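User: Teach me something about this protein's shape.
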Amino acid sequence: MILGGTKGVGKEILKSCLNKGFNVSFCGRNPDEGIEIIQSLQSDNKLYFHKLDLNNIEEIENFYIQTINKFGKIDALVLYAGITPVSSIIETEEELYDSVFNVNLKASFFLLKHVLKSMMELKKGSIIFFGSAHMDYGEADRTAYALTKSALYTLSTHIAHHYAKYRIRSNYLVMGWTNTEGEVQLRSQEGISEEELKKKAGKIIPMGRLLNPNDPIPAVMYFISDESAMTTGSIMRITGGEYI
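Assistant: First, the predicted structure itself:
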């Protein structure tokens, strides 16, 4: 089950899971994108798309219910979806603050409320949080975003500690600067081309380049698999050596 899955790294996770023979439930705001992915991958029986506004808590529960109805159980949950508005603490209005916390934190919290119950019954499960190097203190213009990513890390370690007795594991993957569609669009709005973005990032990231959407996939697949059966409460940084 992926919170997200229609774009960027989330879409690559979906494809990788499908290649492994897994059933995948995913969501997004645009049903056309979900339908296009299912049709292009010719996987009607192994994919389920749910139209979802992450501000709608009732619909988040319905996403869980329909996933169980379709596939019977949830072995792994990938919490990928999030928004990254450009706004410092002195520029952030209440509406923007609430939007970031609703999408980045509240949606994950209430989806977990339901998924954890299912995993407790199964006596197994893997939860993968997508974090950010902003979690420690963040850039000056990413304040609310940084707060949500820090809170998600606390939530990950909370689950790891309190639900290990149910053989549920929870890990936090720090994804570095990545040229996702959202990042390219954001920089375009700032007047920065994708080529300029790559050059800028190349000078900042110790490994010399932006991450691409495939770079985090091996780590995600490891956390999903039984190979990580005794791995919980961990933090893995896939950032090219960048620390904020």
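Now, about its shape. The first strand starts at residue 2 and ends at 3. The helical segments are 8-19, 31-40, 57-71, 94-122, 143-163, 181-189, 194-204, 217-224. If you'd like, I can walk through any region in more detail.
User: That's plenty for now, thanks!
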